[in-house]
C-alpha cells in the first residue's frame, strides 16, 4: 500500500492536505495492520494522524475498534473524519459510535421517575417539568445520547434518574427493552465494521466482565487508540480499586425506591437509605475542600492528610455499618426479585472494597507496597477514594488480552515520550512484552525553527518565590501590549492562575500600560472562555487568557489569534501527586531513577503538550516563554529543553522585544 503525493488523500479536504510526515505515518500503520504488529507512533502537531490511520485501515478492510481519550474526539471521528476519509477514498464503511451506558437515556427509569416511583421528588413542579421535557426529547431521539439533550450538563442531579447503571438495568426483563436506547446503540455497534469507543469504555470492560467489549462488539482485527497518552494515567486509576460517593448514593436511592417496590414492609428501606446517605455526606464534610476546584488528598498512615484521625475512624465505621446493614437487609430478600439480588451483590462487593481501601497502611518509609492511595473531593461534595493498580502495565496487558484475538494494535498521540523508544508510554502500558512492538516518532512538519522563538528569562524570581507570579504578570502585560493581546498564559496551579490574572487586571485598571481584556479560568467554561478570546482578538481590544489544567491540551487557536504563549513554571507533578508517587515507587523497585521516571519525564511530556498550543499550522508564527530559571540552572533543564521542537532562542529582553515587534508588524 502506497501513499503518493498526488493520490486521493493529497486532495485538500477541510482545508488540509497530506504531507510527507503523514504519508510516513500512514505507511507505518498500513505495515502494522498487514503484519499483525503493535505500533506506538508519536505524531507531532500538523502530521494529520487521524487520516494517517483511518486511510490504511479503510484500505485493508479490517474490522476495528477505534478508541479516543475524549468524547469530543469520539464524536469528531464519527461525524466528520470517518465520513470524509470514506468519501475521499470512495470506500464505504459501516461505522458506529458507542459510549458507556450512562450516556444514554434509560426509558424505563425515566418513566418510573415521572410516575413518582423512584422517590425522585417528582412532586416538585420544576423537577416534573424537567422530566417532562426529557420525555418529549427521548421520544423523538432514536439515539438517546444525553449529550444531545439541550441544557443537561454532566453534573445534573437528574442524570442518575434518567440513565442506567450495569446494576440497575433490568435487561431482557425490562418492559422497554425492545426500544431501549442502550441496547439499540449496542445492536448498531454489533453490525458495524468500525466502532468508535473511548478509553473509559475499553478499560471499564476489563472490570465489568458481564459487559465486556468482546460480548458487546463485533470481533476486532485491529484496535486503534488515538489520544493514547491518556491511557497511562487512566490505566493507573481505572484499573486500580476505587469507591466513591456516587456509587453509595446510587445504592441509597435504590434502597429507597426499589426496596419498597419489590419487598414492601420487609425491611426498613427508607431508614437504610438515610443512614447510607448520611454516612456518605459525612465523608464529604471531613475531606479538605477548595471552592471551585477538585482537591486531591494523599494518605498518611490510615487517614487522609489534613483530616482529624479520630473523626476519620468514626466516619469510616459509619459507612461500613451502613453498607453492612444494607447488605444484610438485601440478603434477606434477594430471592424475591433479580434487581434485589443484584443490589445485594453490589452492597457486599462495595462493603469489601471499602474495608480493603480504607485499611491502615504503613507510612511511606516503612511500606513495601507499590500502590498509592488518595481521595479526590470535587466542589459539589462528591468524592472518590482510589488506590492505584499495583502494576498498571500488567493490568493494561490483561485488558489487551481480554479484548479477544486482536491481530494488530496502534497507539498514537502527539505526545508519547521523550526518547525514540517512547519508554514512558511503552513502559507505562507494558507494551515491551510484545515481540512485534514497533515504535516511531514523526516530528511535526512545521518549521518550528523559522516559525517559533523560545525565551527563558533569566531575571525572573525563583519559581517558589511568592513574587514570581507578580513579576511574571508585569512582564506579560508589557509583552502582550506590543501584540495587542493574542496571549495565552498557562499556569501549573490554579493559585498562580488567580494571582497572575488579578495582577494583570490591576495593571490594566491603573492604565499603566495599554488596556487589554483579561480572561481567567473560572470566569466561564473552557468553551466560553475560548470563544471570548477569539471574539476579543477579532473585534475587541485584544485579550490575555490565563488558565491552568485542562487548557494545557485541546486548545486550538490557529493563525495570528495566538502569538505569545507563556508557561509560568516547569510542569512538575506536585511532590504529593499520587500517580507520580506510584510511578516513582515502581521505578525504585526496578532499580531505576525515581525522580527521572516519576517526575522529569512527566514534566517533559506536559511541557511538550502545553508548548504545542503555539504553532498550529504551517503559517503560524509565535513566541514561547517559559518563565522558569531552573531550565537554565538545573541538570534536568537540558533534557526538558530537548523535549521541545527546535525553536530560535531569544537570549535577552531586547531580543524578545524585537521578536514581538516583528510579529506585530507581520500581520
Ligand atoms: S433495558 Fe435497561 S437501560 Fe434499557 S430501558 Fe430497560 S432498564 Fe433502561
Quick description:
Belongs to the helicase family. DinG subfamily. The chain has 667 residues and is of the alpha/beta class.
What's the SSE blueprint?
Elements (H helix, E strand, L loop, with lengths): L19 H15 L3 E6 L5 H12 L3 E5 L2 H19 L5 E3 L9 H8 L10 H16 L18 H4 L18 H10 L3 E5 H9 L5 H4 L5 E4 L4 H9 L2 E4 H19 L5 H18 L8 E6 L2 E2 L4 H25 L4 H20 L15 E5 L5 E5 L4 H11 L5 E6 L9 H7 L7 E6 L5 H4 E4 L12 H16 L3 E4 L3 H16 L7 E4 L5 H14 L3 E5 L16 E4 L10 H12 L4 H18 L10 E5 L3 H4 L3 H6 L5 E3 L2 H13 L2
Parallel strand pairs: 1-11, 1-12, 2-4, 2-5, 3-4, 5-11, 13-18, 13-19, 14-16, 14-17, 15-16, 17-18
Antiparallel strand pairs: 6-10, 7-8, 7-9, 9-10
Helix pairs in contact: 1-2, 2-3, 4-5, 8-10, 8-15, 10-15, 11-12, 11-14, 12-13, 13-14, 18-19, 21-22
The structure holds iron/sulfur cluster.
Descriptive account of the structure:
There is one protein chain. With 667 residues, the chain is of the alpha/beta class. The protein has 4 domains: 8-94 and 192-237 and 391-442, P-loop containing nucleotide triphosphate hydrolases (Rossmann fold); 101-182, no CATH class; 241-387; 448-665, 3-Layer(aba) Sandwich (Rossmann fold). It starts with 19 loop residues before the first helix and ends with a helix. Residues 12-17 and 364-368 have low confidence and may be disordered. The structure holds iron/sulfur cluster. Iron/sulfur cluster binds next to helix 4 and helix 7.
Amino acid at each position: 500500500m502506497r501513499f503518493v503525493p498526488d493520490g486521493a488523500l493529497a486532495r485538500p479536504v477541510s482545508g488540509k492536505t497530506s504531507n510527507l510526515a503523514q504519508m510516513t505515518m500512514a505507511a507505518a500503520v498500513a505495515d502494522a495492520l498487514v503484519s499483525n504488529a503493535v505500533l506506538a507512533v508519536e505524531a507531532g502537531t500538523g502530521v494529520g494522524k487521524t487520516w494517517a490511520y483511518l486511510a490504511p485501515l479503510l484500505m485493508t478492510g479490517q474490522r476495528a475498534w477505534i478508541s479516543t481519550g475524549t468524547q469530543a474526539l469520539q464524536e469528531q471521528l464519527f461525524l466528520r473524519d470517518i465520513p470524509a476519509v470514506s468519501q475521499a477514498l470512495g470506500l464505504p464503511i459501516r461505522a458506529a459510535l458507542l459510549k458507556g451506558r450512562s450516556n444514554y437515556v434509560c426509558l424505563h427509569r425515566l418513566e418510573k421517575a415521572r410516575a413518582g416511583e423512584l422517590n425522585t421528588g417528582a412532586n416538585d413542579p420544576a423537577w416534573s417539568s424537567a422530566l417532562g421535557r426529557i420525555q418529549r426529547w427521548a421520544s423523538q431521539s432514536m439515539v438517546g445520547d444525553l449529550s444531545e439533550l439541550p441544557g443537561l450538563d454532566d453534573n445534573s442531579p437528574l442524570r442518575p434518574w434518567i440513565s442506567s447503571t450495569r446494576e440497575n438495568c433490568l435487561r431482557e426483563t425490562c418492559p422497554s427493552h425492545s426500544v431501549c436506547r442502550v441496547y439499540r446503540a449496542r445492536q448498531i455497534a454489533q453490525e458495524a465494521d468500525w466502532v468508535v469507543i473511548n478509553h473509559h469504555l475499553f478499560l471499564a470492560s476489563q472490570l465489568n466482565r458481564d459487559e465486556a467489549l468482546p460480548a458487546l462488539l463485533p470481533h476486532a482485527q485491529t484496535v486503534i487508540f488515538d489520544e493514547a497518552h491518556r491511557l497511562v494515567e487512566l490505566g493507573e486509576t481505572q484499573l486500580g480499586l476505587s469507591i466513591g460517593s456516587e456509587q453509595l448514593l446510587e445504592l441509597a436511592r435504590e434502597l429507597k425506591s426499589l426496596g419498597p417496590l419489590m419487598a414492601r414492609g420487609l425491611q426498613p428501606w427508607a431508614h437504610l437509605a438515610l443512614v447510607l446517605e448520611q454516612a456518605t455526606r459525612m465523608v464529604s464534610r471531613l475531606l479538605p475542600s477548595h471552592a471551585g476546584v477538585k482537591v486531591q488528598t494523599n494518605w498518611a498512615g490510615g487517614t487522609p492528610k489534613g483530616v482529624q484521625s479520630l473523626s476519620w475512624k468514626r466516619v469510616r465505621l459509619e459507612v461500613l455499618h451502613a453498607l453492612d446493614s444494607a447488605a444484610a437487609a438485601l440478603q434477606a430478600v434477594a430471592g424475591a426479585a433479580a434487581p434485589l439480588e443484584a443490589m445485594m451483590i453490589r452492597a457486599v462487593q462495595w462493603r469489601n472494597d471499602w474495608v480493603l481501601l480504607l485499611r491502615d497502611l504503613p507510612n511511606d518509609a516503612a511500606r513495601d507496597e507499590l500502590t498509592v492511595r488518595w481521595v479526590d473531593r470535587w466542589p459539589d461534595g462528591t468524592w472518590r477514594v482510589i488506590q492505584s493498580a499495583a502494576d498498571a502495565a500488567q493490568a493494561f496487558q490483561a485488558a489487551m488480552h481480554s479484548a479477544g484475538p486482536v491481530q494488530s494494535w496502534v497507539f498514537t498521540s502527539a505526545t508519547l515520550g521523550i526518547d525514540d523508544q517512547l519508554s514512558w508510554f511503552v513502559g507505562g502500558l507494558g507494551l515491551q512484552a510484545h515481540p512485534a512492538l514497533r515504535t516511531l516518532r514523526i516530528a511535526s512538519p512545521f518549521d518550528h525553527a523559522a516559525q517559533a522563538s523560545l525565551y527563558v528569562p533569566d531575571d525572573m524570581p525563583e519559581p517558589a518565590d511568592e513574587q514570581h507570579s507578580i513579576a511574571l504578570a508585569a512582564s506579560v502585560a508589557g509583552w502582550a501590549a506590543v501584540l495587542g493581546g493574542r496571549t495565552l498564559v498557562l499556569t501549573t496551579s490554579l493559585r498562580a492562575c488567580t494571582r497572575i490574572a488579578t495582577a494583570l487586571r490591576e495593571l490594566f485598571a491603573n492604565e499603566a500600560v495599554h488596556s487589554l481584556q483579561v480572561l481567567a479560568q473560572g470566569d466561564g467554561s473552557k468553551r466560553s472562555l475560548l470563544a471570548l478570546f477569539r471574539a476579543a482578538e477579532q473585534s475587541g481590544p485584544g485579550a490575555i487568557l490565563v488558565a491552568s489544567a485542562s487548557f494545557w491540551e485541546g486548545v486550538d487557536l490557529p493563525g495570528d489569534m495566538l502569538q505569545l504563549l507563556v508557561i509560568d513554571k516547569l510542569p512538575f507533578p506536585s511532590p504529593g501527586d499520587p500517580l507520580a508517587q506510584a510511578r516513582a515507587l515502581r521505578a525504585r523497585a526496578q532499580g531505576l531513577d525515581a525522580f527521572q521516571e516519576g517526575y522529569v519525564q512527566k514534566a517533559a511530556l506536559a511541557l511538550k503538550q502545553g508548548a504545542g498550543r503555539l504553532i498550529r499550522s504551517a503559517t503560524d508564527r509565535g513566541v514561547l516563554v517559559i518563565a522558569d530559571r531552573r531550565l537554565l540552572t538545573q541538570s534536568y533543564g537540558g533534557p526538558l529543553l530537548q523535549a521541545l521542537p527546535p525553536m530560535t532562542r531569544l537570549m535577552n529582553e531586547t531580543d524578545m522585544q524585537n521578536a514581538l515587534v516583528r510579529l506585530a508588524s507581520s500581520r
